[in-house]
Design a protein that fits this description.
two-stranded antiparallel sheet; Rossmann fold; 37% helix; globular
Length: 230
Amino acid sequence: MTDNQGKEIFEEGLAAMGLNLDGQACKRLLLYCDELLRWSGKINLIAKAPVREIWETHFLDSLTLLRVLPPLGEVQQPLLDIGSGAGFPGLVLKAARPEMSVILVEPRQKRVSFLRHVIRTLGLSDIEVLCGRLEKGSTEVAGKTLVVPLITSRAFTNIGEFLLHAAAVNPAGGKVICMKGPRAAEEIAAWQLAQPYSPYRLQKIVELTLPFSGKTRNLVIFNKKGASVP
């Protein structure tokens, strides 16, 4: 893939999604993709796929969250990405919106090394990578106590499990954003049945379409009961 080909694919996807990023953000994300492809030849970061599919599945999919994050200029809540893997969605969002404060949690050391390399390469600050797992009921990862009002993840296949893992570190009034496919309604129904006394309430579902495949992406947003977090 040439630099121009990657740029054309990325810009085509952004235009189809109606997203506008400044030139520096685009440069960071193009460099990030280059590093991802280079490192993937050495360690298992993502499944092998055509570059167009990689842009959609990982980068453009992560950027769907820009639709529901506070706009530029508003008070930025720290964002916690649980099970970040190769940085999706947390590191992509940081590259696009560098003013955000971000915490990435990832248990696999090789992927942690990759994340820290990309952060250095892109010259990002106010972003932390914790090597460890967030267990149910725990507020600590790698010896650090977490209290985070905004949490997301692509690592969980089940909404109920994700909310159980998030609850201890998400304060009253906090928000959790689940990134789900077309079966979001089924997962919500299963969560409601299995966890009738959950501290979370469903706020809204934002349905989007990915630009190349036309696949459905549902952003399922929950608020934790209590006073709202500014």
